Every structure is written in structure tokens, then in C-alpha cells.
Amino acid sequence: MVWEGIMINGCTRLHVVANGTMTGQRYIDKVLLPHVRLFRGAVGDKFVFMNDNASCHRTLAVQNCLDSEGIQRLVWPARSPDLNPIENVWDGLGRQVAGRNYPPTNKNTLIRALTEEWDKLPQQLLDNVVRSMVRRVECCITLHGGHIPY
């Protein structure tokens, strides 16, 4: 698993989480506390966290951790990758890695290729996908705000 964070005018390094199943507690230990908490501290009170709603991201332990750290989470429908701007970044990153003269042939070369290509992504691309969140959230509110079950 790899993790990164994006924002206007910046991003985190690409972080590789070692082998194994990602559980809620492992997510807390390997991603939230060492990286998201620090990123939130650097950004300040306007920080809003968005993840991809994987089952390990939705555990009670994760919610308690986010609450205890004062990390505001963007609530959005599960299994909605079209609403998550990082999916566009992942697509571009994947295309860059696949288009390399010497594509990765094992885990180590894949990690190196992902890291090198991540470092080359233009900040303008990241800024554009972050700015697209306004449209995505408005779309989400429009699509999901008018449904009243009866």
C-alpha cells in the first residue's frame, strides 16, 4: 500500500506501507498518526481529511483517532472513486510508471518507479484536482441531497 497527501501548493512524500493486511489499527499506526496528524498540524484548522472509504478507514478505532486528534473528515459516499480527486492523480502516476523505458519488474523497482514519478508530478496537476473538489462536493450534494426515502 502506498499513501500520499495533496493540497494546493504542496504535497507529502509518497509513503510505502510494508506488506500485510491493512486493518484499522495498522492504518492508525502507519498512516494517521505518523503522517496525517503531522500534515494536519502543518496546514492548520482548515485541514479536511479525505480518504477512499476502504473498510479499514471506517472502523470505530479510526473514527475515534480522527476525533481525538481534531481531524475533520470529509464525509462522502463509499465506493465513489469519481468523487475523490486523488484517483485522477493515481491514474496519471500509473500512466507515467507504465510508460517508463524500463517498467518495474518486481516490488522494489515498482516502489522506486512510483516514488520517482510521484516526485515528478507537476504541482499544477495537484492544484487542479484539489480545486475540483468544489465541483465534486457540489455534485455530491446535488446527487445525494435530494433523495428522501419513504
UniProtKB/TrEMBL annotation:
Pfam families: DDE_3. One of its GO terms (molecular function) is nucleic acid binding. It comes from the Eukaryota. Residues 27-103 form the Tc1-like transposase DDE domain. This is Transposable element Tcb2 transposase. It comes from Trichonephila clavipes. The lineage of its organism: Eukaryota, Metazoa, Ecdysozoa, Arthropoda, Chelicerata.
